[in-house]
Fold:
Amino acid sequence: MNNIAFLFVFLFSCYGFSQTIFGKWKTVDTHDVEKSIVEIYKAKDNTVYGKIVEILLENRKNGKCTACKGEDNNKPILGLNIIKNMEKRGEYYKNGTIVDPKNGKTYRLRLSLDENNKNTLIVRGYLGFFYETQYWKRVVE
Structure:
């Protein structure tokens, strides 16, 4: 009986873990181009960040964020935190930003898992009232 209970708890905890936004995601733009792998993680202050850990486009592998502003200006794209200061608000992560390393523009951001496919992250960037949505794919290692 104890083995069955242990197995149930183990499987339930694995299922729950797979339901988070944390981990590695393959970025896919609105033209279905796979650009990079972003690792989403929680910082010490419980805000959420996303760092580029792999660049998939050959011509951008050694690129720098020359159009970025502030402390990110001219930093290598590899290792760059493109998602910053996200906070959990109900089913969404909000109140943070995402930067496009190609043009240096920063957008307000909302993240959520697709309710029909927890291996799809809905990434919605806002500029004023306008928004663009991308669907990133979980990297299964």
Observations:
- Residues 21-138 form a domain with the Lipocalin fold (CATH 2.40.128.520).
- The first strand starts at residue 23 and ends at 28.
- Helices lie at 2-17.
- Residues 2-17 form the longest helix (16 residues).
